[in-house]
Design brief:
The protein has about 500 residues and is of the alpha/beta class. The protein folds into 2 domains: about 270 residues, Aldehyde Dehydrogenase, Chain A, domain 1, CATH 3.40.605.10; about 180 residues, Aldehyde Dehydrogenase, Chain A, domain 2. The protein contains 15 helices and 22 strands. The chain is globular and about 85 Å long. Bound molecules: 1,4-dihydronicotinamide adenine dinucleotide and magnesium ion.
Length: about 500
Amino acid sequence: MKHRLFINGDYVDAATGEMFDVVDPSNNNVVHRVARGGAKDIDAAVKAARAAFDTGPWPRMTGVQRAEVLRRMGDEIAARTDALARMEVLDNGKPLPEAVWDIEDTAAVFHFYADLAERLDTEAEETVDLGMDGFTSKAVKEPVGVAGAIIPWNFPMLMASWKVAPALAAGCTIVLKPSEVTPLTALELGEIANKAGLPAGALNIVTGFGAEAGQPLTEHPLVDKLAFTGSVPTGSRIMATAAKDVKTLSLELGGKSPLVVFADTPIDEAVEWILFGIFWNQGEVCSATSRVLIEAPIYDAVMARLVVETRKIKIGHGLEEGVLLGPLVNKAQHEKVLAAIQTGRDAGARVVVGGGVPDGLEHGCYVEPTILADAPLDSWVWTEEIFGPVVCVRPFTTEAEAVDLANRSDYGLAAAVMSADTARAERVARAFRAGIVWINCSQPTFTQAPWGGYKKSGIGRELGVWGLNNYLETKQITTWDRSKPWGWYIKG
Ligand code: NAI
Ligand code: MG
């Protein structure tokens, strides 16, 4: 496992020589130590990225050439799937099959953006019809410059790929600041990039804390664009910082996403997606459907089955066979989620199942999968992101009420609806004020489709062609036919 920063193509120590602990949340043991990057390291990384952009080969290569490197990075990641997935389990706690899925997705993201990089060679130029004789014009897409990317801990390597792959495909150079909670897999990207032949400086990775490494990256005057995924307060702060230099910005923040289940949904189908919507990845998912609205006629039947199925979920170490719920990512998140459940109880919510630390797993950051009923609409647990395996459930009686309750939120990342009536499902999908809507499922995420939120859930879209556009500027090049005199000052 790597432990040093990756700057200008080399692994180097932090300027201060300091390190910080990497902790396994299944037992809270320190398993590794990595470099504690700070302002000096960020400055070195940004300058390396700046030089690689301003004078290096990367932005000047054709899309086809960049695609070759990105494809090799994807291949290299795929070849290391098992090792990287195990590293993710060690650092984040998630069950191995989910970690394997993450790494396979990560490789696929590099392959996808390799294809888009190739398309830039032919599609980055568009003729603009000015409707005026003597002028011709075209719109040209160009890389935005040096990107600063700051990512969270819930999908450590996948979140890195969502920013690194499209940025590199566009011809940008990038400085990546992984979460201090899960720095391991992102650091491997340096070696992977070198092996794939990425020019030095095109990708730089600085591990460290938000205030010490993240903040200087957002403040650095040589950074053109910031891309952030994480909490709303940090996103809001980064936006304020970016405003000083008018940096281009994309934000993917939290949510409190609703899942509306109509009574014509088979019970087992409803239960399957309610569980997947909140317990997958321990509920540490920005798009988790953490508010479930169930149409009154099937409410009792769904709740009864939910309790039965929730009790069957195997909780334990991520490497243990059959485990579907691992520990939360660290002690802070463990305490936060347990406190949230207490807040719910205090506000009058009823714990239908779960609610505490599972027996025999007190040595790690484990929390039982938890279902809360009757949470008041203005209670913290109903309105705010818990980021753990805790779901709030309420009944509803009409479609209008369901849509109103679903949209009554400061957030608008995702929303889901289940119904056998396709016209109704489509109608509700359109009525949701959210950037990602699922019909008859919740959570499946595809590299090809746009990802991002309305309202406080963020700005801009990642993934698909939208994710590439995040890292492109548009320039107009307009030409005057000089055979004609303009004739404003100099009269013919
Ligand atoms: P955070 O949003 O503070 O951290 C995310 C990233 O931002 C990390 O890399 C961190 O080092 C960096 N960061 C922190 N402060 C910064 C600053 N001032 N300037 C620049 N970068 C900064 O989230 P954190 O502290 O890891 O978790 C807090 C809560 O946020 C969690 O309990 C969870 O509820 C929520 N969260 C939501 C996520 C989402 O995807 N919606 C992801 C991670 C956390
Ligand atoms: Mg860790």
